What does this fold into?
Amino acid sequence: MNIEQVKEVYFLGIGGIGMSALARFFKSRGCSVFGYDRTSTPLTLELEAEGMNIHYEEDVDLIPDGVDLVVYTPAVPKKHSEYQFFLENGYSILKRSQVLGMISSEYKTIGIAGTHGKTTITTLTAHLLQQTPKGVNAFLGGISKNYQSNLLLSPKSEWIVVEADEFDRSFLHLFPQIAVITSVDADHLDIYKNILSLKESFTQFTGQIKPGGQLIIKKGISLNVIQRPGLKVYTYSIDQEADFTIQNLHINKGLYIFDLKLGDTTLKEVELGYPGLFNVENAIAASAAAWLAGATKEEIRRGLLSFSGVNRRFDIRINREDLIYIDDYAHHPAELKACINSVRHLYPDKKITGVFQPHLFSRTRDFADDFARSLELLDEVILLEIYPAREQPIEGINSQMLLDKINKTAKQVCQNDDLLDTLKALKPELLLTLGAGDIDQFVGPIEESL
It folds into this structure.
């Protein structure tokens, strides 16, 4: 299918963060955009305000005539009546990842891969390149706070920055000029079955880097890299000798300041305008990608200081003497650990109350002990019920099971409807909301009530 010929496009699951960026892309090209999603959210309301036609009931009668292309997300179950309708009636149906692959093939692609950190690094890389005279194109896995969008477009730029998502092996539709690999931890075991299978997929991804391209990989990751003609492999690290690293790290007024080493070049006293120790590491990877794509030292320095972050990524919502409230997308044990440790590093004297919504029954089952150890880093633990996403319940797997494994006295399972009252009664000093499900729908109400 030729993307250029598409005039009317339908998104099955339009409210997803990756899907909505594609919808905005097609709308920017003058296409008519329609879609379905299960629930109305602030993001779908924005899409409607931008002129897209969206409905929230599963109903084939609401599908318009003349659809050239149907884009769907794997999060929509195969038995969905609209999906079945498109299938049975011979429509052109493509996965989100296939469409992103087709769009990115027209550009020099920077693909950010890894089981953690993708969204922040993608957004920061795009922000750094946005400082250059030609700007950048980017599909982001979150809403950038600098641009209030998950899509950046620049007709002058030959570069596109995209998240290379390992879920459902989506990243194997990408052929980057520059690739970043941040981490290869066990995850998505419902897709991969084991860590070896996951690593094989990342190895395959390295084989898709274009000849003469560049791979930036976090030092210490054990991965077979497929050697392509002219491929250059670089390492980055926050605390080890590497091609891209930092020195002299310190904090001043809540900002991290450091010397940034980019190959043979060092930028002295760089300030990162975004909190979280793990975001310093993310900044090294993003700076490396932007540097290899041609950003200058001053453009990188300016971009790091002015970066405001991403919604739901170490997102400081309230910052008062008596209360700090941070929201984060962390949904894997390693991400929880990194987030909680970063909070502890910034606020060593505060009592930390964490609300965590587990995401997927299978992930909770596969990593229950690891989740428990990470959540024990909190002073007080509140668990919401598991967000199922695309899954059916698994017998014996629930939030109470996870709570029983956590060695803490201050812990409880809380129903969604009771959360606001529970938090008001607790009067937390430092509150963290964590998870990848619909916990994001609580962020505004929590902010308001506290």
Observations:
- Residues 3-94 form a domain with the Rossmann fold fold (CATH 3.40.50.720).
- The chain is about 30% helix and 25% strand.
- Residues 34 and 64 are 8 Å apart (CA to CA).
- The chain has three domains: 3-94, 107-306, 315-449.
